[in-house]
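Lecture 7 notes: from sequence to structure.

We start with a single chain of 392 residues. Read the sequence below before looking at the structure.
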Amino acid sequence: SRYPLIMHDPRVFKLADVLVNYSTGVKKGDLVAIRGDYNAWPAIEATYAAVLKAGGHPFLVIQSERLAELMLEHGSDEQISFLNPLDMERIGRIDVQIAFWSENNTKSLSRFPSEKIARQQNARRPFMKVFMERAAKKELRWTGTQYPTNASAQDAEMSLEQYADFVYRAGLLHLPDPAAAWKKISEKQERVRAYLQGKKQVHFKVPAHDGHDGTDLRVNVSKSTWINCDGHENFPDGEVFAGPQGVDGHVNYTFPAVYQGKEVEGVRLVFKGGRVVDASAKKNEDFLIKMLDQDAGARVMGEIAIGTNYSITEFSRNTLFDEKIGGTFHAAVGAGYPESGSTNESGLHWDMVCDLRANGGGRGAPGGTIAADGEVFHKDGRFLQPGWPGNE
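Now the structure, written as tokens:
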């Protein structure tokens, strides 16, 4: 056998079908980049075949954890800062990008200097700008998903089989018709999106507890466009988000903020006029500060979002899933999505998650509220309106 047993999982073919025919809607003539590491080969192969069946032109963009390590280990400042013009050509030309994340070692970059990672991220700003602008104009359809690996299973404190079940159930791939199920979820999330569209301010509040001052964050969304994330860009999905115009207040993030394999615990950010004016953490604070200082846009909130996937209930140290947990909210510092009303540009886009559930994750937390223009519509991790996600 070329691959471990887990890689023969028949759900891989269901995943490929959903990614190609629902998430990105590949059609005849589309130029489709499939990104992934060799350890996601079964999913890459299944997706390549699905793209061909849909009439598209698939090609592989190989990713490699080891090559990324070698660049940081042996690369000069000039090499680390080099933005390959072929990458720019690709992101400017493709119609669809399907990416598989399949880390062999989620901590592989942890011991490399933060300055090198920040330099590399900063060099990618033009790439991120083209990517986000083309996506906003609907010129580029994209999706990214997790492929189960032992490294990610270990982070989530599960066996590989258990983690695969967690991943595929979060994507509703255990159901006979996952795409139909996502369409129903889309309808429920649309009620949230429609309610929030046109509101001026969203207020997130968690009482002080466990020795910190809780969360009291007021986000200006008066000119924002709220987006319903229903399995197209991320898979699995489950959030509504907007690009803020301004933010004031403070937030204590419940879960460790994970970026480039580094866990930053106990993150507290203070915003004034939309920018982080004070940042601290109980672990890896130095890394947090260096990421926030990498460019002018890194301290700006580029995204505010509410998690709506009630099939995901536990923290797995993987932002793709953690930011979608039903009963949480998350905010990203750095680049914003133009289609959501954000004009912020940065090499950084770092989502951090705050739990609003009463006793969320069994931690004895007090729960919290979200209000829009003074009206509380979300309390202790639950929407108050019937027919909204998690409140059928």
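Residues 1-6 have pLDDT under 50 and may be disordered. Keep this in mind for problem set 3.
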